[in-house]
Amino acid sequence: MDSAVSKKVTINSYIIAFIFIISMITAAVMLKDHQLILPEAAAMAVAMWVYREAGWIRQPSKIFLAPSITGAIGFVVNQLNIPYLGKVSLTIVLLMLFMRIIQSNLAPSIATGLLPLVVNANEWSFIISVFIETFILMLGVLVFGLNKGLEKKVKIHYKYMFVFLVLTFVWMGLCWLVGYQQLAVIPPILVVVYESLQKPMYNGKIAFKQGLALTISAAVGTLLYISIDSWIVVTLLDMILMLILLRIVGMRMPAVYGFTLLPFVFPKDIVTTLPLVSLVASVFLLASVLAYKKFEMKRRTKAIQMLNNM
């Protein structure tokens, strides 16, 4: 009986999350403003309302506060008359500082902060949409009490923010060297990288599954975007196919739901390169995370052995 109820709750949660996502796309189509689309909101809806990710919902107020402020930071930086990679570098540093100040580890805040640069947001509709969508997401958590029983505060390993900055700057430097500056920042991938650094356990199998899912989601999203005129139909297909993909891969990964919507907001002249660049970025960044975590594990093991020998 409990299993049947749990399954029904899960199905209903998916339906509500997908309705929210499709409504976001519908509003953008009706108002003819693609800046109303916040791909990370799709990831947040599934992670919070379906998966009930503890790290994302334990402090409901920050579901609204953190992404809204980081979105505003990215929006303001985008207005500066400096090169694109300069904007990105400044924004990422400010995002890490802000998250440190408010003691938040909400990874989607990184995506909402970088999105204004990716889409070159210049209209206040972007900020308004971030406010509205994150408020609805927060409201969903509060109304259904999804955060009940969770500790409000947990230990945050801030050292990983520095590691994240280093990896991101190295990747950006490589993109600059090969002349693909516009593709230096792919928000969903950076969110996965940041969250992977925070994981106590990380291995090659997880990295491979993450890279595979990210690349396929980018390819599916791009192909459907190019092939079908109706954004609403594309979104519905995207959500269904991502649900199937994650069942096949055997993991929970809300980022793919946002990634598959990225073609709606990405610069049109480089949308077709998104799958290939996603593959390269995933391989480089996730392999770097894996290398760092292995190094960290070896150092920890060595420290324990030294203590045992004393």
Structure description:
The chain has 310 residues and is mostly helical. The protein has 13 helices and no strands. The mean pLDDT is 91.
Overview features:
13 helices; 310 residues; globular
The ordered H/E elements are: HHHHHHHHHHHHH
The overall pLDDT, averaged over residues, is 91
- What's the number of extended β-strand segments? 0
User: Which runs of at least 5 residues are low in confidence (pLDDT < 50)?
Assistant: none
Number of helices: 13
Give the helix level as a range of percent: over 70%
Which band does the percent of strand residues land in? Answer: under 5%
Structural class: mainly alpha
Layout: helices, strands, pairs:
Layout lengths: L1 H30 L7 H12 L3 H4 L2 H19 L5 H18 L6 H11 L5 H20 L15 H20 L8 H12 L5 H24 L3 H19 L5 H5 L14 H36 L1
Helix pairs in contact: 1-2, 1-11, 2-7, 4-5, 4-6, 4-7, 5-6, 5-8, 6-9, 8-9, 9-13, 10-11, 10-13
Short description:
By secondary structure, this protein is mostly helical.
